Structure formats: C-alpha cells, structure tokens
Amino acid sequence: MRFLPLSALDDCYWYSFNDEPIAAGSPYITPRLSSPAFLLPDETPDAIWHLFAHTWMGIEHYTSTSGLEWKREKLLFRGGHSPFVFHDGSIYYLIFEIHTRTYGRKGEKSSASRIMLSTSTDLMLWSAPRKILDSTAVPFASWRGNVPRLFHPQLVSWEGRYRLYFGAGAWKLRQPDETVAASFGYAESFYPEGPYDVIPEPVIRTDGDNEARSLATGHVRLVPCSDGMAAVECAYYYDEILKKPRSHMLLLESRDGLQFNIKREIQKSPERGWAAYYLTSSDIKYKENEETWYCYYSATGKEEGPNPLVRESLGLLLGKRR
C-alpha cells in the first residue's frame, strides 16, 4: 500500500454522501451499530468491500460491491467490541476488545478489558481469538477509580515494529449517556501476536483546558503517512452555547506517533437528525482510482415518534483534495 503525505488529508474538503445512514442494525433487536472498520476492494482476496462493526451481540461482518449498500454476512465473535482489521502479507488480523457485563441491584458493572486477536486468509473463516493485552497491564486504563477498560484497538506497522494503539479509561458522559475513552496510548511488539510492551503514559488525554476535548478523548483512528501519522479523533467537549456535551471529528497530525497536534475540525455532530447526539467512531482510507477519502463513521441519535429509541448507525463522509 502506498502511503500518502500528511498534506493529502490536510488539504481536503469533506461532504456527506447521504443525509441518512448507509447501514443500521435492527431497530429493536440491535438498535446500535458501532465502530466500523473496513477494507477496500484492492485490499481483499475477493475484490469486494468488507466492513466489520459491533452491536450488543458482538462483531458483525458485512460485504458490499459498491461500498454504499451493505449485506450482513454473519456474527463473528459474541461479546466483541470495536473491531479493527490489519492486513500484513497474506494474513488478515482482526483485533477487538471484549469485557464482561453483569447486572445487579446497583446497576451495570463491567469487568476489565481484554484485547483479542484472530487471523484469516480469506476474511470468512477466522481462527479462535487469543488475548494479546489485558487492561490490568495498562497503568492509565483506570480513569478516576473506575474498572480498567480499553477501547478501539488498532495495529500500525511503524519503524520495524508493531504498535498496538488503544483508548483507555472508561468515562461516562450524561445527557445523553455514553461511555467513552478518557485517553489514548499504545504498546509495542516485534510481532502482531505480541508479546507487547506497554508505554506507561498516554499520548493523548482528556484536557479540561482544551476546548476541543474538554470532556473526553474519545475514539482515535490512525492513518499512517509517508512523512508521519495522521489521525481522525471523535472528541467530546462541552458546547457553551447549547449548554450540553457534543462531539466532533478532528484531524490530527504527528511526525512520530507520540505527539499529536490538532490541525482542524472536520465535522461537528449536527443539532438534529439521526446523528444529533454524538459522533462516536470512524475509519478512513484513500481510494486511489477515485482520488477520494472514504470515512465511515458511527453516530448516535434519537428516532422520531411516540416511543423514540436511541440508535447508533453508520454514515459516510467523502474527502476530496482542494
């Protein structure tokens, strides 16, 4: 895969493909479809689009011939969250987070997180997942005394090693409710399967003095470039005008994958519609034959009607160089 320079993202304008979601779960059975991770046709053995996302049931697999209309294939791993697909040679690595939820008189409780890895050569048959990192091994995975949690793992090949980046520390926003990552860090290994050495400090953290991420770091998706590393962050902040929490997509840049600077805002959560609550996650790739960036994202909002449900669905942003 050819890496583009950082300027290829910085010099883009973005627009929504559609005012409506391009993919959604069942309204009552799986109302929330989240954390898309996709592969372009030139990255797959069958030359079609593949997308992975999660519902409360686990990791779901979708395929498409256009990237616009998606067919559900099957549920891959029950209880899995936040999938990411890394392609290295003839092997595909599916990385995801898993934790156990229990319910009692005092409400919902979650166990510590495990990051799991499964492999495939055809994207259809996957090996039994194995644990490659536990949240108890990450010093900053416990935020303000909460159970240590990890979010949104992703793998990047960098300077002869593999970096496993992840969100860490569970922080619950209110009105509307959303559990999000407080910080963003990584671990390193010589092999995708590990063992991984955890870097003890996060590279991005929630900062009450930074208006862009005053409430939470949220989801960060990395884009390796020829001269550094770009990232799209779905960060959370307090809107002083609307007097409520909001989220927005930020474009970040880094030369070393350690120090990230905010370049600009890509998109805010709208004030109404299917994505009016939060922009929660994204995945982004460049399609060379169209000279276009594809950014699939998940967002939450409330349906219209007498018994409105909070739903999470997938949307699509397209980016073109100016």
UniProtKB/TrEMBL annotation:
InterPro entries: Glyco_hydro_beta-prop_sf. It comes from the Bacteria. This is Glycosyl hydrolase family 43.
